[in-house]
Amino acid sequence: MAASTPRAELVIDLAAFRRNVAVLAGLADRTGAATMAVVKADGYGHGAVDMARAALTAGATWLGACSLAEALVLREAGITARVLSWLDLPGEDFAAGVAADVDISVASPRMLRTVAEAARAVGGRARIHLKIDTGLSRNGCQPADWPALVAEAADTPDVQVVAIWSHLACADEIGHPSISLQAERFDLAYRQALAAGLRPLRHLANSAALITRPDLHFDLVRTGIATYGLNPVHVPLDLKPVMTFRAGVALTKRLPAGESVSYGLTWTTPRDTTIALVTAGYADGVPRSLSGRMEVLVAGRLLPVVGRVCMDQIMVDCGDLDVREGAEVVLFGPGDRGEPTARDWADKTGTIDYEIVTGMHRPRLRRTYVGVPELVET
Ligand SMILES: *Cc1c(COP(=O)(O)O)cnc(C)c1O
């Protein structure tokens, strides 16, 4: 790394991402379903625009965003593929969304009217996806209110009902009885939509259901986590983690036995040893709760982080290894060089890998894209 060693950096492997998307789109394709690449939360921390572009070259034809603001970022980048926005407050600028050709999720009559009004304001027709709550009890229309919602949507000329959709609560628990129950409720909702005169597409599956429930692919699958190479189910699939978190050694020092290290002096050298100061801390996404419980890859060796994780730095016990200042330090990555993975961090901190990678969206972290066919601006 030498002179170009970044302080702390995310390396995003676009080749791995494209391969993952191709694998997943291939699974969807077997059942005739299209693939939506979910790039919410800045592409799960990987960079929404770059991931969106790469996904579209690898077989995805739709993009999923949490909010209109996220969808409009994709439009502003010149991306013209279908984009669905699914969680917006009533006061959002839906007119801007309609004008930008963003598909908008609707879960209530109030929302339907707001979006219809926005469509009228821009002299367009809003493309909407009606969301039914089939049991997650999060977003979506309650089944009891659904017939009225589909009837009103069918009677609203300012909207085109593109799809009905829902989201699964336990897709990552293979065989969980709620999956089939949700599928049954989804089927009823579909028949009610047909009865109201609608002819919508259907989508229900996230990554886990895409991988494990081909019977629930319907017309479109929404895959997020798996495209980033993190498999949500214990089903072997050729996916590779896309994100590597690395930093560098700023300073090395020899400490005698009996010296203590970092705030609180919680760790004491058991022997003479070399300590490497590494330029990533909790401000860069290293969980402070991993103090004394994590290892990093330095010069091809897994070495323990000792003492407390600080805001800007961590200390690594290198023993008698010859670690040079400026050396690369891998905090997590795909694991193929022996480094920890985002899943390892999640397991140790009591969370899921989704939260680890998404939490790496940080202003101080440089993102470098590799595996780029032609150079992508970052
Ligand atoms: C985030 C999200 C997805 C993608 O889920 P993964 O488990 O990451 O594949 C799909 N649908 C909805 C509604 C979501 O919020």
Widest sheet: strand ordering? 8-7-6-5-4-3-2-9
What is the total number of structural domains?
2
Provide the β-strand percentage band.
Answer: 15-25%
CATH class descriptor of the largest domain: Alpha Beta
Please give the share of residues in helix. 25-40%
Whole-number radius of gyration? 24 Å
- Tally of alpha and pi helices: 11
Shape: elongated
Broad structural category: alpha/beta
* CATH superfamily descriptor of the largest domain: Alanine racemase
How many beta-strand segments?
Answer: 18
Bound molecule kinds, no repeats: pyridoxal-5'-phosphate
Helices and strands, in order, run as EHEHHEHEHEHEHEHEHEEEEEEEEEHHE
What is the residue-averaged pLDDT? 96
Describe the oligomeric state of these chains in a short phrase. single chain
Protein name: Alanine racemase
Pathway: Amino-acid biosynthesis; D-alanine biosynthesis; D-alanine from L-alanine: step 1/1
Function: Catalyzes the interconversion of L-alanine and D-alanine. May also act on other amino acids.
InterPro entries: Ala_racemase (IPR000821), Ala_racemase/Decarboxylase_C (IPR009006), Ala_racemase_C (IPR011079), Ala_racemase_N (IPR001608), Ala_racemase_pyridoxalP-BS (IPR020622), PLP-binding_barrel (IPR029066)
Summarize the structure.
With 378 residues, the protein is of the alpha/beta class. The chain contains 11 helices and 18 strands.
